[in-house]
Amino acid sequence: MDRAEAAAKEWARERPELPMLPVETVGRLLDAAARVIRDHMNPLLKEAGLNVGEFDVLTPLRRAGEPHMLSPTQLYESAMITSGGMTSRLDRLERAGLVERRPDPNDRRGKQIALTTGGKRAIDDLIGPMVALEERLISVLTSAEQETLNALLKKLLTGL
After folding, report:
1. What is the pTM of this model?
2. Domain segments of the chain as ranges
3. Which of 97, 108, 125, 140 sits a CA distance of 20 to 30 A from 40?
4. CB neighbourhood size of 160 (10 A)
């Protein structure tokens, strides 16, 4: 019995009128996400001197293509965090020499966040091991199950 099932059984005993499938399903999603980050991603990123939040800032910059530059708004929307949270991450990444703030060529008042050569190297060094880790994590599922899970998660996220 996993933690989500145990919690659902306890709630069913205490509040039998409530549906328990949502409790188990969302509980498993949250547990899986927490365990993937805590037990698998964090150790890999720690070796590179990063955390998941910082990795989530660097990867959209790398995916953006040359010149690997985005506005702070584009970054915090892609990382799904607050602008305040983004500012502290950018400050840390800038101090580490992984990003730099540059004037926005289209808005004299604005700034763009650019990936430095060191930041690009850090992401390029990490992305292969990260994808291998993700591949290993879902390898308990068949290819068909992976496709189904991916489609269902996409549908769920679209509805949120």
Report:
1. 0.84
2. 1-47, 50-129
3. 97
4. 4
